[in-house]
Amino acid sequence: MDSRRESSETLRNKCAACYRQYNRMEHLVEHMKVSFHSAHEPRCGVCAKHCRSLESLREHLIGPLPKVECARVFAARGCSICLNLFDSAAAVRYHRASTCQFTRAAPMPRGSYGGRAVAMACKMVGGGSDGSLDICARVCLIGEDENVIFQTYVKPTTTVTNYRYEMTGIRPEYLRDAMPLKIVQRRIQDILCNGEPLWKIRPRSSGRARILVGHGLEHELERLGLEYPAFMIRDTAKYPPLMKTSKLSNSLKYDIHTGIQDPYEDCVAAMRLYIRMRSQAHPRDYASGSGETQNNYPAWRQRELERMSPEELLALSGSDYYCWCLDF
């Protein structure tokens, strides 16, 4: 009898998101205070477990040591690209051929052109005595419809010592009569600001300025000599659901690099990831932002919290990052 009561108590102290079990309810409450489990964490379509990132969900479903039952169901009815689960194998085939947002652009709203977001990618050649200094030599910007808005080679402002042809495909003659950097800066700034003065851009305003999407944008903006408000930047290298489980690496799992890297393909990959993240349904009154204030677990509520069910505790939890679905 005591054994059954202890087992039942441990089950009650099981996190409703990640399924970790605790011996005491107070330990579960402490876990919820620091875990920041959110409604936007990637979830297994089979067992509904929350995962910290898309990569950890991929490992849960099709990794080297997946959960057996989840892997079995997913193998029959899951999309290995976006990791969603469907009703049948036929539905999966239709999805991958026509609607998977990692394999095609999302449909644009009627009457819109390009959308409010712009994806940018650059290709760097090498400067300095050992060719390790990054110099922007090519840049591409696309809209949400994946059409090119601006694309050009950039005339280097210093001597190029390594064209990195195997990765960039750039030859010296491509840069000889390329567009000067100052003109490139002005063109990109005009596209991003879209007629709105840079100093007037405000967070979540209804202005005309565009959201900048990309991968590793901080470095690319630095190499271009450009500044843009951080609250208008959506970097797939820094968005928690897209980062590796350890959060120590910023490389995309959905790698499209094979041989020579085309900046247009980099833009498309980043834009599709952004649209997928932005398209999530955002629960009403759901806390999202940064910092401990987003988790509603103050010390004065400790007794009340310990009487709650795991599901009720999860309902109080919010992410510690800004959810991109709020851009919609």
UniProtKB/TrEMBL annotation:
One of its GO terms (biological process) is rRNA processing. PROSITE patterns: ZINC_FINGER_C2H2_1, ZINC_FINGER_C2H2_2. InterPro entries: REX4_DEDDh_dom, REXO1/3/4-like, Ribonucl_H, RNaseH-like_sf, RNaseH_sf, Znf_C2H2_type. GO terms for molecular function: 3'-5' exonuclease activity; nucleic acid binding; zinc ion binding. Coiled coil: none annotated. Keywords: Exonuclease, Hydrolase, Metal-binding, Nuclease, Nucleus, Zinc, Zinc-finger. Residues 13-42 form the C2H2-type domain. It is found in: Nucleus. SUPFAM superfamilies: Ribonuclease H-like (SSF53098). One of its GO terms (cellular component) is nucleus. Belongs to the REXO4 family. This is RNA exonuclease 4. It comes from Oryza meridionalis.
